[in-house]
Specification:
The structure is a single chain. By secondary structure, the protein is α+β, with helices and mostly antiparallel strands. It has two domains: 102 residues, Methane Monooxygenase Hydroxylase, Chain G, domain 1 (Up-down Bundle), CATH 1.20.58; 254 residues, Alpha-Beta Plaits, CATH 3.30.70. The protein has eight helices and eleven strands. The strands form two sheets. The protein has an eight-stranded mixed sheet with strand order 2-3-1-5-4-9-10-11, sandwiched between helices. The longest helix has 40 residues.
């Protein structure tokens, strides 16, 4: 194990003792917020310290087995037993080191959250809207495959099919995404520009066209931590919803559009059964968009200092190309190419998301080693 990792892990063992002492104090329950914060940290530190204790135990086992092998030259049975223990300990130590490296990586507290996924048609006219519809279907199918729930918050359908813009809310249990993340953690690297190369259904000459759509993935704000919106900064309009939704939908002005006047950010919801429900959901999307704007501005500043492998998640970053004539998907950030495009479009996104998660973990580990993460 690298010395810098061992140093980090020793700190966890020390911190566990400090947290045990804090939780044993009689006055700890007088401040419930502090108690919850310490309890959460205690659970995380206990996991790391426990795995490190197991690593140290297996190191001792390995050293003992090697000594036994040296001293058992005259006993084939003892030598065989020692060799088996050496092989077993070495294999477990490699597995434990990999696990400990991942546990040490900085965690994004938003990774466990549900997410809003906003998909917008870009350049390419009708074909772009159709592609936005295909991308929407891809995420919806993937969500169904892993047991997530998808609801449409708002949609602006295009005349020939697909969407000019659609916002989905995707809900799922933490731990169901790649590397044990939640919905946002699994999908956050999908933010950016998606480009398609194919022969559109409207093309009579059989020529390949290139069009694009953009995706923005935003964590659903925590009710307790969400930014507080000043009512004076909001303009709230109601209007008659259009599109699918049942017979009731054309009878009342139940759809809601909220404008945040200081930033000009807009959110709307037309899918709920009441104006009250739509207003609540539109405000949630608005908060998510404002927080995402702040996050992307921070990411842009960080990217100016050092270009991360995965990028900043900015809409203008072209992240992926879907080439239908060749059946090829290429993620430009990590030089990933897969020749199973049709399967991916049917929701088989696991390999792509896993590769992005592993690339980010490798990047974080390098930052941890060089100390660029603080």
């Amino acid at each position: 194990m690298k010395p810098f990792l061992r140093t980090q892990l020793e700190r966890y063992a020390q911190r566990l003792g400090e947290l045990d002492f804090l939780l044993s104090r009689e006055d700890i329950m007088s401040d419930m917020a502090q108690y919850r914060r310490i309890s959460v940290e205690h659970a995380e530190v206990t996991q790391v310290a426990g795995r490190y204790a197991r690593y140290q135990q297996r190191e001792a086992d390995l050293a003992g087995a090697r000594e036994m092998l040296v001293s058992s030259a005259d006993s084939p049975d003892m030598a065989e037993m020692a060799q088996e223990e050496i092989t077993s300990a070495e294999a477990e130590l490699l597995q434990l080191e990999d696990e400990l490296q991942r546990l040490l990586l900085p965690k994004d507290p938003d990774d466990a959250r549900n997410a809003f996924v906003e998909i917008r048609a870009g350049t390419g006219g009708d074909e772009s809207a159709l592609f936005a519809g295909d991308i929407t279907r891809m995420y919806t199918r993937y969500a169904a495959n892993v047991g997530w729930k998808v609801e449409v918050v708002s949609e602006n359908a295009a005349e020939l099919g697909g969407y000019k813009e659609i916002v989905l809310r995707i809900e799922g249990q933490p731990g169901t995404g790649p590397s044990g993340s939640g919905v946002y953690g699994a999908l956050k690297f999908e933010s950016g520009g998606h480009r398609v190369q194919r022969v559109p259904a409207t093309e009579t000459q059989g020529r390949i066209h290139t069009s694009a759509c953009t995706v923005a993935v935003m964590p659903e704000p925590d009710e307790h931590e969400a930014i507080k919106l000043n009512p004076a900064d909001l303009r709230i309009d109601t209007f008659r919803a259009s599109g699918a939704g049942g017979q009731h939908i054309n009878k009342t002005d139940s759809a809601v559009r909220v404008v945040h006047l200081p930033t000009g950010i807009v959110a709307e919801c037309q899918d709920g059964r009441s104006q009250h429900a739509n207003k609540a959901k539109a405000l949630q999307v608005l908060q998510a968009r404002i927080q995402e704007k702040e996050r992307s501005e921070r990411a842009a500043k960080e990217a100016a200092l050092r270009k991360g492998l995965i990028g900043s998640g900015d809409r203008s970053d072209r992240i992926r190309t879907y080439n239908f004539p060749q059946g090829r998907l290429t993620d430009h950030r990590i030089n990933l190419t897969l020749y199973k495009l049709l399967a991916v479009m049917e929701g088989d996104l696991g390999d792509v998301l896993q590769a992005l998660a592993h690339a980010r973990e490798a990047e974080q580990l390098e930052e941890l080693e060089t100390g660029t993460n603080g």
